Amino acid sequence: MQAELVEKLQELQQQLHAAPELSGKEEGTRARLAAFLRQNTTLQVVDTGSVLFAVNDEGAAETICLRADMDAVCNSAGRPFHGCGHDGHSAALAGAALYLQQLRQNGLSCGKNVLLLWQPAEETGAGAAEALTVLHTQKVDCIYGCHNIPGYPQGQVLLREGVFACASKGMTIRLTGRQSHAAYPEQGVSPGPLMGEVLQRLQSWCHLPQYGGLVLATLVGLQAGSRNFGISAGEGEINLTLRAERLEDLLLLQQTIANTVEALAQKQGIVVDFRYVDEFPDTVNDAALTKQLAQVFAAAGIPIATLAQPMRWSEDFGWYLKQTPGVYFGVGAGQDTPGLHTDGYAYPPGLLGPMVDIWCALLAAGAPQAQ
Ligand SMILES: [Zn+2]
Ligand SMILES: [Zn+2]
After folding, report:
1. Cα(161) to centroid of ligand 2, in Å?
2. How far away, in angstroms, is 147 Cα from ligand 2 center?
3. How many angstroms is it from 333 CA to the middle of ligand 1?
4. Per-residue three-class SS string for the chain
5. pLDDT number for residue 369
């Protein structure tokens, strides 16, 4: 893309960067993106109040969707910042809109209808579900999304057939026994022994013979009783992040933990309550479309690499792929770029141009065929 357009996009990215908004609160971000699209393109722009999309309708047989996320995360001081680079993702997708506009102005077509989708709340896993209806009403045949990934050469596309990113969810196990005087613990019901047993068994639950890939249960928080030394703890809470390469393995892990804890709790006279948050599916790429994408990028001179292992993190893009074939891929953010969600991270300025070029190469290719 021409330097002056990339400059315009860089300006947009910097504006988004300066006004980070947390998941589900992206009003200002949506408004800024919508204003940019209306100023610079004749695409139909729709803001649903949570999802923003732009439509390039050519009356073609195929409709493809390109998706970006736009929410920020909190830094270690608890303040919102674009620590995942979604400001860059949003601006790069606006670059795809500029490309489509150029085609229009030159009387050219890209041979397919294109839906550009900016979804909210990727970080909590809630946003894709809100955008799914747009995919249905726009009759999308296949969908593409990408994420910048520090630690890889800048601009290199990272592809993987099948699972690209793991499924995960947060699990809270709340245990309610009965408190007693610390001198008479036997008169109460402490959650302590059960909590110890859960921690001890955690590893074995991650290695069931039925699993078909990586499974992890990570302790993220543990709390029981209080700092009151006269009282034997009567309640406690364990917070785990469950993670698996395959969604079915994650569900088996969850069921195994829940059943075991339930049985142990019953024996000990403890009431147990389970809660789940931040649920992400596995992100599973269509094999044929992934191969096709590799050819498209290679033909456009874009460097590509294949990931041997799926990313351990999760992406709510997986919800789209449960309904519509598509590909989620990585774009290297530079070998020395600090990790996502760390205080030192910012979307690298040099990455925007290559990311826009990647979307343009995809749009310039023939209409994709899912198999
Ligand atoms: Zn993130
Ligand atoms: Zn992200």
Report:
1. 20
2. 6
3. 14
4. CCHHHHHHHHHHHHHHHHCCCECCCCHHHHHHHHHHHHHHCCCEEEECCCCEEEEECCCCCCEEEEEEECCEEECCCCCEECCCCHHHHHHHHHHHHHHHHHHHHCCCCCCCEEEEEEECCCCCCCHHHHHHHHHHHCCCCEEEEEEEECCCCCCCEEECCEEEECEEEEEEEEEECECEECCCHHHCECCHHHHHHHHHHHHHHCCCCCCCCCEEEEEEEEEECCCCCCEECCEEEEEEEEEECCHHHHHHHHHHHHHHHHHHHHHHCCEEEEEEEEEECCEEECHHHHHHHHHHHHHCCCCEEECCCCECCCCCHHHHHCCCCEEEEEEECCCCCCCCCCCCCCCCHHHHHHHHHHHHHHHHCCCCCCC
5. 47
- Nearest listed ligand to the Cα of residue 149: 2
Please state the domain extents for the chain.
Answer: 3-165+282-364, 167-280
The pLDDT, as a whole number, for residue 2 is 86
Say how many Å lie between the CA of residue 326 and the centre of ligand 1: 21
- Distance in Å, CA 300 to ligand 1 centroid: 29
pLDDT of residue 20: 98
What does the pLDDT read at residue 162? 96
Does domain 167-280 sit in CATH 3.30.70.360?
yes
pLDDT at 370: 44
CA of 125 to the centre of ligand 1 (A): 10
* pTM recorded for the entire structure: 0.90
Spans of the chain below 50 pLDDT: 369-371
CATH architecture of 3-165+282-364: 3-Layer(aba) Sandwich (3.40)
